[in-house]
Design a protein that fits this description.
The complex is a heterodimer of chains A (about 170) and B (about 400). Helices cover about 20% and strands about 15% of the residues of chain A. Chain A is built from four helices and five strands; from the N terminus they run αβαββαββα. Chain A has helices at about 20-35, 85, 120-125, 150-155, and strands at about 65-70, 95-100, 105-115, 130-135, 150. In chain A, a hairpin with a 5-residue loop joins β2 and β3. The two termini of chain A are about 35 Å apart. Helix content of chain B is about 65%, strand content about 5%. Chain B contains twelve helices and two strands, in the order αααββααααααααα. Chain B has helices at about 5-40, 55-65, 80-95, 135-155, 160-190, 195-205, 215-225, 240, 250-275, 295-320, 325-360, 365-385, and strands at about 100-115, 115-125. In chain B, strands 1-2 form a two-stranded antiparallel sheet. In chain B, α2 packs across α9 (about 250-275) and α9 packs across α10. The radius of gyration of chain B is 24 Å and the shape is globular. The chains are: A alpha+beta (about 170), B mainly alpha (about 400).
């Protein structure tokens, strides 16, 4: 086998023992009976994305609900360059650019449909101002479909930690 | 009716109600135990939302089953479809009447009640609802009736899955009935009686029969797994192939009846195993449990419950460990292995009994059982180390692969 497939021979009759194999399996399951359980009791215990990294934590590269970062004045960092709606494979970002009297561009409308989003993280990767981010957060259940469209205000109000995207020059995150 | 008969009737009704209630409560909580054990075997927690650590879960399940809408498949044989769950349920519950659960109690009363008149009782009261002289035979007979419920449920559902499940179940239960019957013949040879009470008394006089007949015990347990349709013999409800087998089309309380029947059969097989091979309610190394008081009766009942629980644990342990047999393997195991081996074993024990008792003149039952234990060691070595060489279950290893598809030599 050229590609290194390990071939297992069928066991010869002399090697086969059903009763002993059965006892071996039952010993194994009995050991599991005595081991501590691994269940996360979800509503009481939750995965958190912070640096504390408790028993249950999200991976630093977890891509969840979006978050728009803001500058010191509380304005969004977005300059409405239009790269994120351009690269978005799910076409879920709606951006209408505006310009103030000083010639600074800002988003008049910035909406992300979390329902359409595939959480690829391209928007974060492409953003030149490090404004839009995907975050370490996944609990976005709503009572109606319309609530899944996050406007700029709601994106800015998110507080969860943002995700660290994979860096090709540092593939192991060191 | 004489006053004695009236008292007997009253006591029987009381025993019946007590045993039935206990049985149903145990079954209810076995469903929770099964789910909890399943979880623990897989490092999970199991149901823990309803009540403290999930203890009220069976009640919630029961309410849900009663409130659920029941469906009736189109083109089904309606009368049979409705009747089948009770046909599976009734024999399973009837069996609880035949197993002695505690030591007999000596007591007497002489009451005169309005309407019924005078009733008297004086003497030992056997702690079994029906102390039938044909005990074990009746258990075999009633448990065979249980297959009708399953086969009819499969047939009447007008569903291929159900039909296949019902057919498999009838084939399996009929086949393993033979093995179960044969594996108990040595016990009956030793005790000389088929009454459950007498079998326990014979074990108290010598040793528990698991010692002189442990192969018999092993095979009875094996057949018991098949009789109760539990893994690794749960072909009638093989989930991957047959959805749920014979009860695919059942919903609500009718489905629950099948479920209860399965757990009831599990308790019965455990209780019969305990009675035949582990001394029933007998507390070993003491005669105190036969003194006839209430305290010994309670203690022996507790020990009986513990023994039965241990076997139920084994049932669940096996279920969450072993994979399902293939259908031909199941049939081959039953007919090609168990029946011939058990016939040979019955002959061996019969010959050994004659040789030990008449040839060597051993009269003490204890010495006789020890001698049979020696015989069993040899037979057990033969079964577990010689027969169990790919012969017990002939897997794919037993078949030569076609020449053109043979595997290359491992390097």
């Amino acid at each position: 086998m050229a590609i290194g497939v390990k071939v297992l021979r069928r066991p010869a009759r002399a090697d086969v023992s059903y009763v002993r194999a059965m006892l071996k399996g039952m010993t194994l399951t009995f050991k599991h009976l005595l081991q501590p359980t691994w269940t996360m009791e979800y509503p009481e215990e939750r995965s958190v994305g912070d640096a504390a990294r408790g028993t249950w934590s999200l991976a630093p590269r977890w891509r969840g609900t979006h978050r728009m970062l803001t500058d010191e004045q509380g304005r969004s960092k977005c300059v409405a360059c239009g790269l994120c709606p351009q690269i978005c494979p799910a076409n879920c970002i709606k951006l209408v650019p505006g310009e103030d009297e000083d010639g600074h561009r800002y988003p008049l409308i910035y909406e992300i449909d979390e329902f359409r989003c595939v959480f690829c993280g391209y928007c974060q990767e492409v953003c030149p101002e490090e404004a839009i981010h995907v975050g370490q957060h996944f609990e976005n259940a709503e009572y109606e479909r319309g609530r899944f469209v996050y406007d700029l205000e709601r994106l800015q109000a998110q507080t969860h930690p943002v995700s660290t995207l994979w860096d090709p020059s540092d593939p192991r995150g060191e | 009716m004489t006053p004695e008969q009236k008292a007997w009737l009253l006591l029987t009704v009381v025993k019946l109600l007590a045993v039935f209630t206990l049985y149903m409560v145990t079954i209810t909580y076995l469903t929770l135990l099964e789910r909890k054990l399943a979880a623990w075997f897989q490092n999970r927690l199991g149901p823990n939302r309803v009540g403290p650590s999930g203890l009220l879960q069976p009640i919630a399940d029961g309410i849900k089953a009663v409130l659920k809408q029941e469906t009736l498949p189109a083109q089904s044989a309606k009368a049979v479809f409705v009747m089948a769950p009770s046909l599976a349920f009734i024999p399973a519950l009837t069996l609880c009447a035949l197993i002695p659960v505690a030591a007999p109690v000596d007591f007497s009363f002489d009451w005169t009640l309005p309407l019924v008149g005078r009733m008297t009782w004086d003497g030992p009261l056997p702690m079994v609802v029906a102390d039938v002289p044909a005990g074990f035979l009746l258990i075999l007979a009633i448990s065979s009736i249980g297959v009708y419920g399953i086969a009819l449920a499969g047939w009447s559902s007008n569903s291929k899955y159900s039909l296949l499940g019902g057919l498999r179940s009838s084939a399996q239960m009929v086949s393993y009935e033979v093995a179960a019957g044969l594996s108990v013949v040595p016990v009956l040879l030793l005790s000389g009686n088929v009454s459950m009470g007498e079998v326990i008394r014979a074990q108290q006089a010598s040793t528990w029969y698991v010692l002189p007949l442990f192969l018999s015990y092993f095979f009875f347990l094996l057949a018991g797994f098949a009789e109760t349709n539990r893994l690794p013999f749960d072909l009638p409800e093989a989930e991957s192939e047959l959805i749920a087998g014979y009860h695919t089309e059942y919903s609500g309380m009718k489905f629950s009846l099948f479920f209860i029947a399965e757990y009831a059969n599990m308790i019965t097989v455990s209780a019969v195993t305990v009675t035949l091979f582990f001394g029933g309610w007998d507390i070993p190394f003491t005669a105190w449990d036969q003194s006839g008081g209430w305290l010994p009766a309670l203690a022996s009942f507790a020990l009986f419950g513990l023994k039965v629980f241990l076997f139920i644990f084994v049932f669940m342990w096996v279920r969450w460990t072993l994979p399902r047999f293939r259908y031909d393997q199941l049939m081959a195991l039953g007919w090609k292995l168990l029946v011939p081996v058990l016939l040979a074993y019955v002959m061996l024990i019969a010959v050994a009994l004659v040789v030990v008792e008449q040839g060597l003149g051993v009269t003490s039952p204890l010495a006789r059982n020890l001698a049979l234990f020696g015989v069993n060691l040899v037979a057990g070595w033969l079964v577990f180390f010689v027969l169990d060489r790919g012969l017990v279950i002939r897997g794919v290893a037993g078949r030569a692969p076609p020449a053109d598809r043979s595997l290359p030599e491992a390097s």
